[in-house]
Amino acid sequence: MTDFSPHRPDWWRQAVVYQVYPRSFADADGDGLGDLRGVTGRLPHLAALGVDAFWLSPFYPSELADGGYDVADHRDVDPRLGSLADFDALVAEAHRLGLKVIVDLVPNHTSHRHPWFREALAGGPGAPARDRYVFRDGRGPGGELPPTDWQSVFGGSAWQRVPDGQWYLHLFAREQPDLNWDREEVREDFRTTLRFWSDRGVDGFRVDVAHALAKDLAEPLRDLGAPELSGDAGLARLAPGTHPFFDRDEVHEIYRDWRRVLDAYTPPRTAVAEAWVPGDRRALYARADELDQAFNFEYLQAGWDAEEIRAVVTDSLAAARAVGASATWVLSNHDVVRHASRLMLAPGTDHDAWLLSGGRTPHVDERAGLRRARAATLLMLALPGSSYLYQGEELGLPEVADLPAEVLQDPVWEQTGRARKGRDGCRVPLPWTATGPSYGFGASGAWLPQPPSFAHHSVEAQDGVAGSTLELYRTALRLRRKLLEGEELGWARETPPGVLSFTRRDGWRCVANLSGAPVPLPPGEVLLSSMPLPGDGRLGPDTTVWLA
Predict the structure, then answer these.
(1) Nearest to 54 by CA among 13, 112, 85, 95
(2) Where are the alpha helices (DSSP H) in 420-515?
(3) Are strands 16-20 and 53-56 parallel, antiparallel or unpaired?
(4) Which residues touch 29 (CB under 8 Å, ≥6 apart)?
(5) Quick one: which of 351, 373, 374, 376 has its CA closest to 362?
(6) Which helix (H) or strand (E) holds 330?
(7) Contact assessment for residue 215 and residue 148, using Cβ atoms and an 8 Å cutoff
(8) Which residue has the higher pLDDT, 195 or 278?
(9) Is 93 helix (H, G, I), strand (E, B) or coil?
(10) Is the peptide bond before 6 cis (omega within 30 degrees of 0)?
(11) In angstroms, rounded to a whole number, what is the distance separating the alpha carbons of residues 519 and 500?
(12) Residue 79, preceding peptide bond in cis (omega within 30° of 0)
């Protein structure tokens, strides 16, 4: 059995980490917005669930132009969410319960309300304060055109003009000016931030858009030639490491520098990169002298297809193994459609169009979606490496696709001219009870409306109920601690079409039937099944089973 001791320096290698989006987790003061005291009060839920750690999404001072990822101070707490004293109490309670704490770090940009950016605007063209960001003169007569054709991830130009005529770079919302990581002052400030939170007891960091920090800012700045090259298409079509602002080779110098800071602590602080790059490039972020892990988004993006998932798992394990890291697996997070809904959408479905339809075109059968979600989770938890869970998936929450336009807060909605609805549907506050103005989220309403169906998804409605999704997660995580051994798996040589079957080192087996028909159940003692078995010696469709 794998040693899950929290004192191991490599505790993260096969950990289960639960993502807490604090504004939607629990509201202690009744203002409709989740807060740190709310998180602290609900930590027993995470301990009872059986996770090893939780990742806390941004809780820093922010105007919420991008859900907290527009940070005005990287070393403080938003007063609406609490104080540094509340944060310290949260860490102390987590550690008392045996939970590790990972905090979100947002190094690519700041808020436009950050003191540095205010200073840059006040200083005007040529001011040294502007060198902390990426300011440039525009093109065309009078400089009225953006410096390049680079596009924002959220839509539109990645450049915003200021009153004195210059433009600044923002790869995301216009309220999120990009930092200039060529400046030593920027690098030193983030070393200070790493130490600040590490000194307060955090166990690790999740690094937001880790692949975007290093940029080719040599003059003249080069155009990409097509809007789509600003995104994933550019990474696929340009030579590796040569994109002007994504996944440049120089970014790894930054993380090698960070590793020296993280290793100065006992045990060393861990870090995981959010890097939306191809698998072989992603593994570079997890080398021994850089960050420990990198999120595996190929697995998240895979369709409900046995051969596709088998290829992704095989390639992901090989890529992680090549750099001495462990693989990571994730099905949902704060940026994507929840997998209880997403897995029911046919390959090639335009998720933005589906959200714009209110989740009606195509129609998603919630019961069928939950069945697939449970099967996908049991499959994921059997894989070697770390599993990252998103808050509410243990309750089987679907995407809230029918949020009305007037409540949407994701900047994607307005920045794309209301062509993309954004990510609010996966950020709706959690239901803790079956009744109440916000289903136990807080004493009053919630900052995003919860659908009536959240009542039967609530913790109260599922706690102790045999066969509920919450009890499935609890049982799976308890068994996982006993069963997990090593970081290898062996694929079965022959399986029916649509079936995945593999064994782990100590002989236990995971079998997932992703097809639409029952298949013979292999011999062995059934330890856990994602859905009740028919009792006729077969494994039903969209069902995963663990066998001794």
Answers:
(1) 95
(2) 454-457, 459-462, 469-483
(3) parallel
(4) 35, 37, 38, 442
(5) 351
(6) strand 328-330
(7) no
(8) 195
(9) helix
(10) no
(11) 11
(12) no
111, 63 contact by CB (below 8 A):
yes
Q: Which residues pair with 293 in a beta bridge?
A: 272
Using the Cα atoms of residue 343, residue 348, residue 352 and residue 354 in order, give the sign of their dihedral: negative
**473 contact partners, CB below 8 Å, separation of at least 6:** 49, 50, 377, 389, 394
Six-digit token string for 311: 């290829």
Q: Which residues pair with 169 in a beta bridge?
A: 159
For residue 53, name the pLDDT band (cuts at 50, 70, 90): very high
For residues 40 and 29, give the distance between their C-alpha atoms in angstroms, rounded to a whole number.
13
Compute the mean pLDDT over every residue in the chain, rounded to the nearest whole number.
95
Token look-up 């045999």 returns 466
Q: Output the six-digit token pair for 391.
A: 């808050």
Question: How many residues are given for the chain?
Answer: 548
Q: Using CA atoms in the order 141, 146, 149, 153, what is the torsion angle rounded to 10 degrees?
A: -160
Work out the number of other CB atoms within 10 angstroms of the CB of residue 540: 21
* Cis upstream peptide for 128 (omega within 30°): no
Q: Residue 121: phi, psi to the nearest 5?
A: -65, -40
- Alpha-carbon distance of 52 to 381, in angstroms, equals 13
Q: Contact 286/251 with Cβ under 8 angstroms?
A: no
Q: Give the count of beta carbons closer than 10 Å to the beta carbon of residue 365.
A: 12
By the 10 Å C-beta count (0-12 exposed, 13-18 middle, 19+ buried), 201 is classed as middle
Say if residues 393 and 332 touch (Cβ distance below 8 Å): yes
- How far, in Å, are 142, 212, 221, 228, 240 from residue 243 at the CA level? 29, 10, 12, 12, 7
What residues contact residue 42 under an 8 Å CB cut-off, 6+ apart? 25, 26, 432
Taking each helix axis from N to C end, the angle separating 469-483 and 366-381, rounded to the nearest 10 degrees, works out to 10
Q: Is the pTM of this model over 0.90?
A: yes
Q: For residue 2, give both structure tokens.
A: 């794998």
Q: What is the pLDDT of residues 279-315, one digit of tens each?
A: 889 999 999 999 999 999 899 999 999 999 999 999 9
289 CA to centre of own chain: 23
Give residue 357's identity as a one-letter amino acid code: S
Beta-bridge partners for 206: 104, 272
CA distance 473 to 468: 9
AA identity, residue 190: F
Q: Would the pLDDT of 6 be above 60?
A: no
